[in-house]
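Sorry to interrupt, but I need a hand with the structure work. Leave the record below and I will have a look:
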Amino acid sequence: MQSTETAENEKVVRGEKIAWKRLPPAALLAALAAAAANALIYFAASGVGFIPQSVLLPSPTGESPLTVAPVVMSSIVGAVGAAIVFAVIGLFARRPMRLFRITATVVLVISFAMPATVPGVPVTMILLLEVMHVVAWTVIVGLLTTLARRKDGKGR
């Protein structure tokens, strides 16, 4: 990061502001890319038996085996939530990229608890679900902080 001095002698870090017009398309791309990446992981893992259909997971409609639909929906909801948090941080933080990465990392670590707490899930499936969390985090944080980063210092 490069820093410059403003007229008021306040340090500003270049590349640390959000390009608001680019945020919605970046969020959409992040949602689609995270969903696609995790769907590919799901199909590959299911194909080799790492996601057994005999394991029932709690869902809003009762217990059911893990399918691609909740994997895709969770990825999309995570991306939309991340974009909203990113926007809120961008409104108030002096260094929104840095603060967003820290916040997203904390959320990632907290998210590891969910797969590990479901009873009766094989260890390989738990690890695979954790990998999906890391993939979603990588895609979403990477795309939001890259594509929605203000490059010219003018807010575009």
